[in-house]
Amino acid sequence: MSQPTLDGMPEPLYAASPARLTTYLACPRRYRHGYLDRPTPPRRPAWGHNSVGASVHTALARWWDLPRERRTPRAGGVLLVSAWLGDGFRDDRQRVAARERSREQVERYLAGVDPDDPPMAVERTVTVRTPRASLWGRVDRIDDRVAEGVVVVDYKTGRSVLTVDDARESLALAVYAAAVAHTLRRACTRVELHHLPSGRTLAWDHTEESLDRHLQQADTVAAELARLDESAAQLSEAEADEAFPARVGPQCGWCDFRPVCRPGRSVPQRQSWAGVVDAD
Q1: Which residues contact 254 (CB under 8 A, 6 or more apart)?
Q2: How far apart are CA 278 and CA 280, in angstroms?
Q3: Distance (Å, rounded) from C-alpha 64 to C-alpha 59?
Q4: Do the Cβ atoms of 144 and 119 come closer than 8 Å?
Q5: Contact status, residue 222 vs residue 31, Cβ threshold 8 Å
């Protein structure tokens, strides 16, 4: 529910993370189930690939907390094992194989990271405002480099093949760059996806104009969500289904809310371990 305002006072800004905005853009029905329905509908059990991603992110963040003399690739592997989450895998064999593969990826990645050049920030929350929104997010890593300046780094662990377009078109990365510039008072236009399975870095150098375009899109979506959020509680079930349509496609098989989404159930369910890379 929005806060009442006095006559002549500006409307309050809509607070949102990029994840909230992109969830709506991907599927309004999923947005409704995840952010508005109370109580929140039951979700699917944990996904194995999410366990992999969370474990890797934790290990890479904690590595920078180690004393300099212990900041080695092997120590990163040890951190991965200690942070390992075991949910969502097919069986113990897949769980152990995924853990060892992730440990090797973390160690290989850290072999190319200078332990004497710590980042400006790790898992830093940053914010930026648009005319109608207050946007915030947590950045995996923020570097300060001689050649590129301040850089947003986002770790990726999925099996999907990434391209430079994924960095260029990412609303989240653009918002992070603008938010880093606003929060740290430093220019920031470069964003990078560091894909550990392939060892590739996908980078994009934004211009002020391209960042503005992304922020304008975020502002437009936030304004739409402010309107929808306000009215959602007064809608009947049929009206809510119309206001928040399901976008049916292969992605429905991966959706946490597929069990309560009639259109989504027309797509075959993916098993919780299907996103984990197997040896074969």
Answers
A1: 47, 270, 275
A2: 5
A3: 9
A4: yes
A5: no
Whether the model clears a pTM of 0.90, i.e. scores above it, the answer is: yes
Length of the chain: 280
- Residue ranges, the chain, pLDDT below 70: 1-9, 279-280
Structure tokens at 118: 């710590």
* Alpha carbon distance 101, 80 (integer Å): 11
Chain center to CA of 169 = 14
Two tokens at 74? 């092997």
d(CA 224, CA 255): 23
DSSP 8-state code for residue 278: P
First vs last C-alpha separation in the chain: 51
DSSP 143-156: EEETTTEEEEEEEE
pLDDT score recorded for residue 130: 98
Under 8 Å between Cβ of 47 and 95: no
